[in-house]
């Protein structure tokens, strides 16, 4: 293929645009510059809007079992699960060690959601509905996952923790 002046100019402009896009996209997450908020502070805010009374606080072993996460991915977390395995209520706030780990953690949580949907669909329709209305979001190095009748309130409390 022969490169003419027009083709060279086109390739140069295309390369410049791609580099510019990469810079803008690469920095866009950093422009957000999520505040470094201790997970227990986020937990406190959530507890102000939603009750955790009928839930058990989970440890790292439980976090690994439910989401297949490794300790080298997680810097800090809080986990609450339903006391009964026929209930769907769940809350996880996870702070990953590096921002680039957030997406893979989110994917692992999606597998948990899919498993819960399969388990509850025909057996517990009201719990299945809660799973369908889950909140799963990433904010910098933080991931929020909740299945709750108060999911919207929990999401709002999570977002306000960073303001």
Jot down its keywords:
163 residues; alpha+beta; five-stranded antiparallel beta sheet; 6 helices; 18% strand; globular
End-to-end Cα distance, whole Å, is 55 Å
Rg, alpha carbons: 20 Å
Mean pLDDT: 85
The tally of beta strands, per DSSP, is 5
Query: What is the string of SSEs from the N terminus onward?
Result: HHEHEEHHEEH
The share of residues in helices is: 40-55%
> How big a fraction of the residues is strand?
15-25%
Number of helices: 6
What is the topology, as strand order, of the major beta sheet?
A: 1-2-3-5-4
Query: Which structural class do you get from the secondary structure elements?
Result: alpha+beta
Main beta-sheet annotation: 5 strands, antiparallel
Low-pLDDT segments, ≥5 res = 23-32
Overall 3D form: globular
Topology of helices and strands:
Elements lengths: L4 H28 L6 H11 L5 E3 L2 H8 L6 E9 L7 E7 L5 H19 L4 H8 L2 E5 L2 E6 L3 H10 L3
Antiparallel strand pairs: 1-2, 2-3, 3-5, 4-5
Helix pairs in contact: 2-6, 4-5
Describe this structure in a few short sentences.
The chain is an alpha+beta fold. The chain has helices spanning 5-32, 39-49, 60-67, 102-120, 125-132, 151-160, and strands at 55-57, 74-82, 90-96, 135-139, 142-147.
Structural description of this entry:
The protein has 163 residues and is an alpha+beta fold. Helix content is 52%, strand content 18%. The chain is built from six helices and five strands; from the N terminus they run H-H-E-H-E-E-H-H-E-E-H. Strands 1-2-3-5-4 form a five-stranded antiparallel β-sheet, with helices on both faces. A hairpin with a 7-residue loop joins strand 2 and strand 3 (90-96). The chain starts with a helix and ends with a helix. The model is unreliable at 23-32 (pLDDT under 50).
């Amino acid at each position: 293929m022969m490169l003419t002046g027009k083709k060279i100019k086109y390739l140069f402009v295309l390369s410049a645009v791609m580099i510019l896009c990469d810079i803008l996209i690469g920095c866009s997450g950093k422009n957000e510059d999520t505040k470094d908020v201790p997970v227990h502070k986020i937990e406190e805010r959530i507890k102000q809007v939603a009750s955790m009374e009928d839930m058990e606080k989970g440890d790292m072993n439980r976090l690994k079992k439910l989401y297949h996460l490794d300790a080298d991915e997680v810097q800090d977390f809080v986990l609450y699960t339903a006391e009964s395995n026929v209930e769907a209520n769940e809350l996880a706030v996870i702070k990953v060690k590096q921002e680039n780990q957030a997406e893979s953690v989110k994917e692992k949580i999606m597998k948990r959601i899919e498993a819960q949907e399969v388990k509850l669909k025909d057996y517990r329709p009201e719990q299945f509905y809660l799973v369908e209305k889950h909140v799963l979001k990433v904010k910098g190095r933080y991931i929020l996952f909740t299945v709750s009748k108060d999911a919207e309130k929990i999401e709002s409390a999570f977002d306000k923790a960073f303001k």
